[in-house]
Amino acid sequence: TEDMSVWVKDAMSHYWGGPKLTESPLLDLQVVQNAAQEHDDNPTKALRHILARAVEQQRPEGERSMTTAEWILYNILELKFIQGQKVRDVARRLAMSESDLYRKQRVAIENVAHTISLMEEKNQ
C-alpha cells in the first residue's frame, strides 16, 4: 500500500535511531512482533532486522557492482540507508544525478515495502 511505502521510507531514514523508527506504525506488524522475541523483546531492533532482511532480498545474485542497472536499487538502499551515506556521495559512487537517485530510491523503497507486505502475509 501507499502507506506502507511512506512508513518504510520514514523508518529507513531513521534506520540507526530516531522517532520515525522507534514510533513507526510498522512496529505493529505481526512479522515485527514475532522478530522481537528473538531481539530481547526490543521492537525497534526487531524492525531494524526486518528492514535489513527486506533490503537483503533486493540484492541481485552474483558479484556486487556499483553501477550496473540490476544493482542500482539495492546499492541505493544499502549505501544511503543502511550505511547512512549522504545523497551526494551515493550519487557519485553510483555515477548518477541526485534527481535520478531520488527517482530510483522511490522504486527501491516500494520494493522493500512490497517485500515486507509479503513477509507480513506469511505471518498471518
Plain-language structure description:
By secondary structure, the protein is mainly alpha-helical. The protein has 7 helices and no strands. Helix 3 packs across helix 4 and helix 4 crosses helix 7. The chain starts with a helix and ends with a helix.
- Indicate the overall shape: globular
Query: How many individual helices?
Result: 7
Low-confidence stretches: none
> Cα-atom Rg, whole angstroms?
14 Å
Chain-averaged pLDDT: 95
**SSE string, helix = H, strand = E?**
HHHHHHH
Main sheet specs:
none
Task: Determine the oligomeric state from the structure.
Answer: single chain
Distance between the termini: 17 Å
What amount of the residues lies in strands?
under 5%
> What structural class do the secondary elements suggest?
mainly alpha
What helical percentage do the residues reach? 55-70%
Q: How many distinct beta strands?
A: 0
How is this structure best summarized?
With 124 residues, this protein is mainly α.
Topology:
Layout: H1 2-13, H2 19-22, H3 30-36, H4 43-56, H5 69-82, H6 87-93, H7 98-123
Key attributes of the depicted protein:
7 helices, mainly alpha, 124 residues
